[in-house]
Amino acid sequence: MIVDVHAHYLPTSYRPWLETLTAMPERPPAPAASPTPEAGRIFAAMSDEPGMIEQRIAMMDDAGVERQILSPGSMAPYSTEFRSAVEAARVLNDSYHELADSHPNRFASLVSLPLPHIDAALEEMRRGLDELGMVGVYLSCSVFNRSTAEEEFEPLYAEMNARGTTLFFHPSQNGICSPFINDYGFTAAAGASLEDTAIVLHLIKRNIPARYPNIKIIIPHLGGLIPMQLARLDGQAHTPDLLSPPSAMARSLYYDTVGWGSQAALRCACEAFGADHIVPGSDFSALLTVESYKRTFEYIKESRLSDREIEKILHSNALTLFDFDKALPRTAPPRPRS
C-alpha cells in the first residue's frame, strides 16, 4: 500500500480564517474567491463538506493508497498579527487531529505553525507532536517573502533536529517574488517549481542539512530544477562556507513524485538523488483537473524504472520517514476559550 506524503485538506472550520490571513501582506488569494468551476471543485475536494471525506477515501482505495499525510498547501496559518496566526494554527491542527482520530488508519497530519511568531510556533509544534499525535512538521518555502531557511527560523530547526522530526516544505505561491514569473502568469505553473528549487538552494547555503542531520526533509514536485543542477552547483557554488558539497546535501533530502505525469522528470530525479530518496505524493487535489488520483501513482509504474526502484518509491521509502505507531491519534485536550 502507498503512503501519500503530499495531500491537502482544508476543513470548514478553517475557512473563516482564510480571508483574515490572506488580507495580510504578500498572501495569494484564497481559492474560495476563484471564479473557475474547476478551482471550486478542487477546493471542495480538499474539504470536509458532506460526502467529501468518503469520496476521498474511495479514491484512495482505488489508487491503492493506504494513508494520506495531510497539510494545508499554500494556505498555511501565517499572519503578521500574532493572535490571528496562533488561533488559525490551533483551529487547523485541531481539525486535522479530529479527522485522523476518526480514521486512524487512513490519515495522519503535519503540524502547521503560526509564523512568523517563533516562540508560539515552537509551542504549537510541541502541542501537535506531543498531544495531537501529528507525524511531522509543515513549512511553506517562505513566510511573507522571507525564506524559511533564514536565520530567524533557526530555533525551529534546532527543535526538529532534537526530535528527529520529518519536515515537509510546500510552495507559498509567490512566484519567487519575481515579476519575470508573476507578471507573465506563471506563478503556479512554473513559480511553484522555482520555489522548490530556491528552498533547496537556501537550505544548502545555510548548511541546514549538514548542521541538522536528524531532520528528514521532504521537498515536493521532484525538487524543481535541482535534479539537473547538482554538477553545476558542485562546480560553481561549493564555497568554503559549505560543510559539504551541494550535491551531497541535496541528496540527503527526500523528494516527492508530484510531476504532473512526466516520466522523464521522475527518471531524472531518481538518477540524481537515488530511488531511496523519492517518496510518493499526489498534491491532492490539484491534479484532479488533469488526471485521476489513481493515475497520479500509475505513471510511476510506467516510467521505465526498475521494479526494485518502483517498489522502493511506491511502497518502502515513506515508511522510513513516519512513525505511525508512535504518533497514534489521541484525544486532544480542550482548547482554552478566550
Name the descriptors.
single chain, alpha/beta, two-stranded antiparallel sheet, 14 helices, 10 strands, globular, disordered C terminus
Structure at a glance:
By secondary structure, the chain is an alpha/beta fold.
Give your account of this protein's structure.
The protein is of the alpha/beta class. The protein has 14 helices and ten strands. The protein has helices spanning 15-22, 37-45, 52-63, 82-102, 118-130, 154-163, 179-182, 191-205, 208-211, 230-236, 246-251, 263-273, 293-301, 307-316, and strands at residues 2-8, 65-71, 107-111, 136-140, 142-143, 146-147, 166-170, 216-219, 254-256, 278-279. The strands form two sheets. It has an eight-stranded parallel β-sheet. It has a two-stranded antiparallel sheet with strand order 5-6. Helix 3 packs parallel to helix 13 and helix 4 packs parallel to helix 5 (118-130). The longest helix is centred in the N-terminal third of the chain and has 21 residues, at 82-102. The chain is globular, with a radius of gyration of 19 Å.
